[in-house]
Amino acid sequence: MSVGIDEISFYTSSYYFDLRTLAEIQETDPDKYYVGIGQEKMGMAAPDEDIVTMAANAALPLIENAGSDAVGTLLFATETGIDQSKAAGVYVHRLLGLGANCRVVELKQACYSATAALQMACALVARQPQRKVLVIASDVARYDLNTPGEATQGCGAVAMMISANPRLVSIDPEVGNYTEDVMDFWRPNYRTTALVDGKYSTKIYLKSLKKAWENFSEVSPLSFGDLSRFCYHLPFSRMAQKAHQHLVKMNKVVMTPEQVEEQIEPTLSYNRIIGNSYTASMYIGLCSLLETCQDNLADQRIGFFSYGSGSVAEFYSGRVVPGYEQHLHTAKHREMLDNRQSLSYDEYLNLYRYPNPTDGGEHELPHVTPGRFRLAAITHHKREYVTC
Ligand code: HMG
């Protein structure tokens, strides 16, 4: 029996801010963003959107197909937690109409926790193959204005149904891990924006890739040449390009720059126009690969490098299941991305600065998002989510 990703779907806000406009305001060359970090647009959440509404919107098509009773566990990965106690997934559980016997828990370790959730889901399915596990990763990436991180903001959620004999990607059991206590990126509980030592974070990312790959090579029968495509954690698309060149060099493989690029390019398309979605970003990259790659990927092996600042990293692999292309949500995703609205600089600032009420009063939120789920109000410190 194989275990892995049976279905995958993602969601992002219907608003984006173009990095050309940011470059104009900052009197910077737009190519610093379009070419230098490889990013074009960043998703900006509306006032009535957050990790819960994006998560429910991402997961809805999966629940419509599998049925709400099929899910035995919902694992929710995020680093944009809305509550120190209650798991965000419990709200999603209600919005999606999941069964009362479905367990729900939230996981955190920066951008890595979706991968922890995926691996735990595979273990749960291996133990109880008749039950599916819904893994959701949802985040809003926020940095201070006028900092180098500002251009790498974004938002998005991805939902994956993990099952026995999956229809998209079967996950191999061998993994390579690397953990090191570092301060490259962090967000203390009292802050809404992350703190980051940007250049240092890129160095730790590359070091973690080397260490996780070495560990993977010790335990896996696969070598570099067995992997035809690579999905990397995507804080910005240029990071993946640098990482992949690093991995190729480490393995002393002889490849042309075009061949190196071909192994990752299809994973980057969605991220370039959504921005960093932290826990969701590598898996939105997987969607991008499966949905935009011109080649048939059936039976090809994919290498995955998941990185979460702080830091925990993991390298693992999976095999694309023949027939996968019949089970994707490509048209829906394209339509969502094509229908997004561009923001002016002032509109971007308004969304960035939209107040997050903390006074315990009654606050209704304007109905802005076209999504199926929205945050309608915050009343006496309680978040009220509704289905539209
Ligand atoms: P910066 O320091 O302002 O940028 O921000 P820079 O000056 O290094 O320029 C970036 C690149 O653009 C350089 O290329 C420039 O040469 C090039 P490189 O040398 O790197 O190859 N460039 C141009 N190219 C073409 N035309 C031009 C031009 N001008 C410059 N005119 C930095 C970069 C990464 C520091 C910033 O974006 C940042 O702080 N980002 C946030 C942190 C981050 O994303 N780190 C990534 C690794 S950590 C991670 O992935 C985890 C994370 O997702 C969080 C989590 O785990 O929860 C962040």
TrEMBL record:
Keywords: Transferase. One of its GO terms (biological process) is acetyl-CoA metabolic process. Residues 255-350 form the Hydroxymethylglutaryl-coenzyme A synthase C-terminal domain. GO terms for molecular function: hydroxymethylglutaryl-CoA synthase activity. Gene3D superfamilies: 3.40.47.10. It comes from the Bacteria. InterPro entries: HMG_CoA_synt_C_dom, HMG_CoA_synth_N, HMG_CoA_synthase_prok, Thiolase-like. Belongs to the thiolase-like superfamily. HMG-CoA synthase family. Pfam families: HMG_CoA_synt_C, HMG_CoA_synt_N. Coiled coil: none annotated. (3S)-3-hydroxy-3-methylglutaryl-CoA binds at residues 29, 143, 242, 276. Residues 2-165 form the Hydroxymethylglutaryl-coenzyme A synthase N-terminal domain. SUPFAM superfamilies: Thiolase-like. It comes from Marinobacterium lutimaris. This is Hydroxymethylglutaryl-CoA synthase. The active site is at residues 79, 111, 233.
